[in-house]
Hints:
Strand content: 15-25%
Order of helices and strands: HHHEHHEHHEEHEEHE
Largest sheet: 5 strands, parallel
Bound molecules: zinc ion
Strand order of the largest sheet: 1-7-6-2-3
Shape: globular
Distance between the termini: 46 Å
Oligomer: single chain
Number of helices: 9
Structural class: alpha/beta
Amino acid sequence: MAQRFQTAVSLLYPPRCLGCGEMVERDFGLCGPCWRDTPFIAGSVCDACGVPLPGAEDGHRLECDDCMERPRPWTQGRAALLYKDRARRMVLALKHGDRGELARPAALWMARAARPLLRDAMLIAPVPLHWARLVRRRYNQSALLAQHLSIQTGLVQCPDFLVRTRRTQPLDGKSVRQRFADLDGTIRAHPRRRHRIAGRSVLLVDDVMTSGATLAACTTACLEAGAAEVRVITLARVAKDA
Ligand SMILES: [Zn+2]
Ligand SMILES: [Zn+2]
């Protein structure tokens, strides 16, 4: 029945490439040229932030210069895409353009990138938006990604586990030091959700990692609330040369 309904829907709305709108054979994907133009991260990566690194994997933990300079409070991190070109446009469309349909394939790519991070009984938690920003934008793209990631991985999510205690100014254009200072103490665990996290592994979900300041503030909040450890997955990672 569901299959027949799905077929009927596909006939009405033939699957389109998320990059260019061309018709594609399978739903939730990209056409060949768009796939080739999308900067998926593969090969050796920094184990803390997921940025690609030169050289072959040799089984040892690799870290990029940024993560060595500023050790991350989380255990491990990955990203599906490099934040540039088509990936950058997709992230911005997801954030501002009401292109919620991007969240499902994006979560698929994230689930694949997050495979080494996944643990039994892990709790998925999105990076929160301040409520004022949520009202203006109508949805939190990180919560949307977390929701689809929960479906993809079968792990439970808690959409309001973390809350912003005060509104912060946009971080764009600020120095790394300023970003970390601005966010310090602005995120904490929801008092009524703390019991869900005690002794558990948490998978934090965000759309983009730039300096990592927001993810660090979220990680600290999870650890203070009693999480055993935190890992992070983002749709895209800003690399220095990007
Ligand atoms: Zn395309
Ligand atoms: Zn790194």
